[in-house]
């Protein structure tokens, strides 16, 4: 079972920043999860919320600011001394060239449409030849359908937060390969069914080590965790 660092090593480092991604690699994560939005000047930036209010010393919506404006703030809101900035997806991909990490790019287009986001992200993945290392996901399943229409070779996974009936069958209707369910709705049967049907399943956000052990034993594909270091140690036992 693979370990994906949720927003990087976000328990101990500023989420969705290069500091958190590099820390995840250092503690042995197999992959990172990150979130993307489009700026006013149509650049793809890595951040979770639609605004920078929670995670920086600034304020405002991503869609109303340029990359230059966004980079004038610091993003170590919960910590001190990291002096870290917002990154473009291009900058993260440039770093990913130096390692073998997998990367889940979550398109944060469920509140704002961010017209052209799918095309831009897929173009960048092609530029870096990362087709096999990236999994695209979104709570906006119309957007995933669009991604598959643009390029069918990049894996997509339906991200959801509700208690769905047979999610492993639902995904056929939107033509995506995998599911990213909330851990509270992940039963043993769901993992077993996904395994049987060859459907990648990566629950979020799993910070309990007993749960990680159970999921691994059942043959779960991967988990998203805020504590990749602890998870890596657990998986070595
Ligand atoms: O992509 C898995 C997980 O990150 C989804 O929840 O709120 O962190 O985007 P959220």
UniProtKB/TrEMBL annotation:
<dbReference type="InterPro" id="IPR017946">
    <property type="entry name" value="PLC-like_Pdiesterase_TIM-brl"/>
</dbReference>
<feature type="domain" description="GP-PDE">
    <location>
        <begin position="1"/>
        <end position="235"/>
    </location>
</feature>
<dbReference type="Pfam" id="PF03009">
    <property type="entry name" value="GDPD"/>
</dbReference>
<dbReference type="GO" id="GO:0008081">
    <property type="term" value="F:phosphoric diester hydrolase activity"/>
</dbReference>
<dbReference type="GO" id="GO:0006629">
    <property type="term" value="P:lipid metabolic process"/>
</dbReference>
<dbReference type="InterPro" id="IPR030395">
    <property type="entry name" value="GP_PDE_dom"/>
</dbReference>
<protein>
    <recommendedName>
        <fullName>GP-PDE domain-containing protein</fullName>
    </recommendedName>
</protein>
């Amino acid at each position: 079972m693979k370990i994906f660092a949720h927003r990087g090593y976000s328990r101990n480092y500023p989420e969705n920043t290069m500091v958190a991604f590099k820390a995840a690699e250092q503690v042995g994560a197999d992959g990172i999860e990150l979130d993307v939005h489009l700026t006013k000047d149509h650049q793809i930036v890595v951040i979770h919320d639609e605004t920078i209010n929670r995670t920086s010393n600034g304020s405002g919506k991503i869609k109303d600011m340029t990359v230059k404006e966004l980079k004038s703030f610091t993003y170590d809101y919960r910590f001190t001394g990291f002096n870290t900035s917002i990154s473009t997806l291009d900058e993260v991909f440039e770093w990913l060239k130096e390692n073998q990490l997998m990367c889940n790019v979550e398109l944060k287009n469920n509140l704002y449409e961010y017209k052209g986001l799918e095309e831009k992200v897929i173009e960048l993945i092609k530029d870096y030849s990362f087709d096999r290392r990236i999994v695209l996901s979104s709570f906006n399943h119309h957007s995933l359908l669009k991604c598959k229409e643009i390029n069918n070779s990049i894996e997509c996974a339906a991200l959801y937060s509700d208690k769905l009936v047979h999610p492993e069958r639902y995904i056929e209707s939107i033509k995506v390969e995998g599911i990213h369910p909330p851990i509270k709705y992940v039963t043993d049967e769901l993992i077993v069914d996904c395994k049987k049907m060859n459907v990648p399943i990566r629950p979020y956000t799993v910070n309990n080590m007993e749960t990680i052990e159970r999921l691994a034993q059942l043959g779960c594909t991967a988990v998203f965790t805020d504590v990749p270091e602890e998870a890596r140690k657990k998986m070595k036992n």
